[in-house]
RNA sequence: GGGCGCUUAGCUCAGUUGGUUUAGAGCACCUCGUUUACACCGAGGGGGUCGGGGGUUCGAAUCCCUCAGCGCCCACCA
């Protein structure tokens, strides 16, 4: 069969992906086989594939494809996330461009727009995953707002409410004034920023005394309801209990004492604004202070802000500085670096705000999540270092604010009636009405009920993902959930360990009393060569699809996996894809080479071929053992590296060269058949990494009839192998290497055959036929140096080889070479001797170690002896 | 402020409970090469006092202390 000289990745990828799909090779249904399940971390429905997704999904595909070949019922569940805040922000922005304000339209109208948007841009990312070769069971594709998924979320809320774990609380929360919603603590990033510390003057009622207060937020003085000092502070002893006057407002506020105040910081005197700072809020509760809210939902000052009403907080900060200064109420302003909380989604400065929100009690339901990861390792983390991060978070967990003031998401199933303080949790209005009227004397009508406007935090749906994709919330006993749950592996980034991983573990035990997965593989973050995070703003993120088109999916996959150990950041550079492409090219050409070898049916197998094939079989099994072990430990880049070296170095550079027929000759049938089997095995271990190329080659191998796809073939079994044969071949390689060096030194062409002899030894060096062929040696046998006039010798392990010299011989250079060798060995001998001279070593070290050292001495001594002999013969 | 982790060849990293290695890999680099699979290649080669210092030990890249540098996570000092 003709093999094209160049591998065409574009056509091949298209061909095989549609073949796999048509034959439903990724489809999984419960059966008698052992399940291997991964649920995808659902990407944002309107998102686009970026390098992080590529890495993450390549790893998942590798795990899934290998499991499938291991004979498991592999099931990779794909899907997308509605990503409430991110998607809503995009829709709002888009509507704005069209002149529509969200506040001017009804909730239903907005949702209609949002669905339009989702249908227009949604799901594209899943098509991109297909280009990467991902072997998901696409029939199972889920979206977090699908009807069944929606119902599961609502039902979970109901169940938790029933247990008394969900409650409504008036609390200080993180307010994102841009998105106009609360965000959870996890969605706030604290970033160090340059700002100013303002020293303000407060007067005390009926007194000449003025107090100085340091604050970073002078605009919040309108919300001040106390000043606070430390009771131990001698400076302020006399003023505790007096009234201070808020600058500009002229309001009187009490001066209180609390040990919370740091004597050292600022002036030791603190202004207390309970409505806009969590610490102040706590102080307010403790000291029964008034709470004055000065902002609206946009963080614009309300009428408590007097003449600043209607102005933005940062604008007011600038203006009030000027006013205070002009009134001589600003003492000084210092540069100050402090942490500012910013919303992860909008980057707006988060405003602490008091409001009524829904919370989930966390302290009890987290207990199994702690136990099963940290104590009994029912769930394993790779790398394990993330356990400590996980532990700290769980042990210091606060109640989870699960309500969001958004429309795009699962609307909170709470229905208010009567005075709006009464509410009932129900799946829908109808059910709510029935429930209410059953327990109330007053009979309500549907119009008397209003559903909570808020939606649930996106993570409140994703934390159910491994259960809800198998419908295990609504039907806890269905065949699917019973078969597929718990899943095996989860592959995700450490940045969502709290958002998602920990919460899935919590919900797993809460709703099914069982872990959601057994192993968590944390990928690193994809960065550029300069270690910068890849981002749109920096423009340092390559176009994922373009990379696939240019290099081929397999090459990109290999490139990504070449340097990404679990948990380690991946410094991505396009040259990695080039390396991947070089590898695909290498394998392709191996196919072309083997394909070109004609078979001689009559010829019996030459010894050299048998030696080569036996060695490679041993070597393959030796590597496979390592590969399997590394897979078990999720050391996937190590797996790739050993496969890469096995195929490139051992298979292509050695075995194929050994078997390559001489000019004009044919290969014997046995060798070719055995070679093809070995080639196939190589393809199998490479398949999880390079699914397209390997599938293509598998069907093009000569003398085979591979009608069944490689994708569903069996992972090779480890056969018994001879480690000695593997070790011995290393000596063979060295001998050949030395001869090559010799040729190079002497400028002897490969075409000129040489004779090679070796000194008698109790063992003869193996693989003589291989050395003869690969190094172009005419005669290779035992002999003694006396038989020749001059020789060039080299020593490998315990063998000394020599090549008789005919003319032109640089004696000095030869002596130099030997002396160098001698020096090394003498140094080595000395270090070993010193070790053995040390009585304590001999006394304390294990006998096995001592014996090894002793053997080293014997070996090295005999080596030194023969080198010395060679030198003296030359001199 | 608290916690975790890192520092091994030019780059990215291995080094599996301290001892079969006076330190390994891939890439990069240098030299040579038109041997009929592949120059997206082949053959060969150079390159590290394992961040500094101290300690434990017969023996340390590996364990302990300390210093320096870097990274990440958490956190309510105005």
Give the rounded overall mean pLDDT: 92
Structural class based on helices, strands and sheet pairing: alpha/beta
Question: What is the helix fraction of residues, given as a range?
Answer: 40-55%
Instruction: Assess the beta-strand content as a share of residues.
Output: 15-25%
What does this structure look like?
- The structure is a single chain.
- This protein is of the alpha/beta class and 875 residues long.
- 44% of the residues lie in helices and 18% in strands.
- The strands form 10 sheets. Strands 7, 8, 9, 10, 11, 12 and 13 form a 7-stranded mixed sheet that branches.
- Strand 10 (243-245) and strand 11 form a beta hairpin.
- Helix 9 runs antiparallel to helix 10 (386-395), helix 16 (544-551) packs across helix 17 and helix 25 (811-837) packs antiparallel against helix 27 (847-874).
- The longest helix is centred in the last third of the chain and has 28 residues, at 847-874.
- The radius of gyration is 37 Å and the shape is elongated.
- The protein binds one RNA strand of 78 nucleotides through strand 8, strand 12, helix 7, helix 10 and strand 25.
How would you describe this structure in keywords?
875 residues, alpha/beta, RNA-binding, elongated, seven-stranded mixed beta sheet
Write the layout of secondary structure elements.
Layout: H1 9-22, E1 35-39, H2 51-69, E2 73-77, E3 79-80, H3 84-97, H4 107-121, H5 124-132, E4 142-143, H6 147-162, E5 166-176, E6 181-183, E7 188-204, E8 210-215, E9 226-229, E10 243-245, E11 252-257, E12 269-272, H7 278-287, H8 313-326, E13 330-343, E14 351-360, H9 367-375, E15 380-382, H10 386-395, E16 400-401, E17 403-404, E18 414-417, E19 422-425, H11 429-439, E20 450-451, E21 455-456, H12 458-462, H13 465-468, H14 479-484, E22 487-492, H15 497-512, E23 517-522, E24 526-527, H16 544-551, H17 553-562, E25 570-571, H18 574-596, E26 599-600, H19 607-632, H20 636-659, E27 667-668, H21 669-686, H22 691-698, H23 723-746, E28 754-758, H24 768-774, E29 777-782, E30 791-796, E31 799-804, H25 811-837, H26 839-844, H27 847-874
Parallel strand pairs: 1-2, 3-4, 9-11, 15-23, 22-23, 24-25, 26-27, 28-29
Antiparallel strand pairs: 5-6, 5-14, 7-8, 7-10, 7-13, 9-12, 10-11, 14-16, 17-21, 18-19, 18-20, 28-31, 30-31
Helix pairs in contact: 1-22, 3-4, 9-10, 16-17, 17-18, 18-20, 19-20, 19-21, 19-23, 19-24, 20-21, 21-22, 23-24, 25-27
The chain binds one RNA strand of 78 nucleotides through strand 8, strand 12, helix 7, helix 10 and strand 25.
